[in-house]
Design brief:
It is built from 12 helices and no strands. It is mostly helical. The protein has one domain. Helix 2 crosses helix 7. The radius of gyration is 20 Å and the shape is globular. Pfam families: ABC2_membrane_3 (PF12698).
């Protein structure tokens, strides 16, 4: 099973880098994200970017962006290129194909996120290091890595569900843009509807509360969501239905 999943992951990475677009094109497409989140914003924020526990939230958010950019192609792209039937006719199990597609997107996003955060760390040291070496505290690094993995998986799970039913990559990408906006802004919108006193209490809790407990709760919620979405994707992943579609 693990060997089959890795086979699908490697297939996806190989196609992403060398078939869907040149390696040079992929690298050029990463430059805007690296410049914004690796240079411009860290240079403005300074050492707070490295030292503040709130940066863990940014780690999680950054990991979602690259997933949205490529997960639309997972099955809709295979359908457009007329390779879906060949993939489904292979001896690979349905779970291996599904988890391989998700794993490839998550791995790509995770690596890109670490590249941006490494560049950001270098930027902060240059701009606001004052001769000292600034590093991410272990608590922030570990928490951010875990949160980034979970949010990337959440984005990939939603993307796979959309790509399974989308007729084209463009259609899937458009639907995922709306999903990403909802995931980003819906919680803020809901918070804005709460009474002012409740909002102030939540802010105080975030500032003065146990950040470890808060992030642990967030991780548990994300794990439950990911588990449910992957189960739903497995239930919808039917070889015969996808071929007929």
């Amino acid at each position: 099973m693990l060997t089959d999943i890795w086979t699908v992951i490697w297939k996806e990475w190989r196609e992403l880098l060398f078939q869907r677009g040149s390696l040079r094109g992929i690298l050029l497409s990463l430059i805007p994200s690296v410049l914004i989140f690796g240079v411009l914003l860290p240079a403005q924020v300074g050492r707070v970017w490295v030292e503040s526990p709130a940066s863990i939230v940014l780690w999680g958010w950054l990991a979602m962006l690259p997933v949205t950019a490529i997960i639309a192609d997972a099955f809709a792209g295979e359908r457009e290129r007329h390779t879906l039937e060949t993939l489904l006719a292979s001896p690979l199990s349905a779970r291996a194909i599904l988890f391989g597609k998700v794993g490839a997107a998550v791995g790509y996003a995770w690596v890109l996120t670490f590249i941006m955060l490494l560049v950001a760390l270098i930027t902060v040291n240059v701009v606001d290091g004052d001769g000292r070496l600034l590093l991410y505290p272990a608590k922030i690094a570990i928490g951010g890595a875990i949160l980034g993995l979970l949010t990337a998986t959440l984005s990939a799970s939603i993307g796979v569900l959309v790509s399974l039913r989308a007729a084209t990559v463009k259609q899937a990408a458009q639907q995922l843009v709306f999903a990403s906006i909802a995931l980003t802004w819906l919680p803020l919108f809901v918070l804005s509807l709460l009474p002012t006193q409740v909002q102030e209490d939540l802010v105080k809790l975030a500032q003065n509360g146990n950040t470890t407990a808060i992030y642990l709760l967030a991780a548990i919620i994300l794990i439950i969501l990911n588990f449910g979405l992957l189960l739903l994707a497995m239930a919808r992943f039917k070889r015969s239905r996808l071929i007929l579609d």
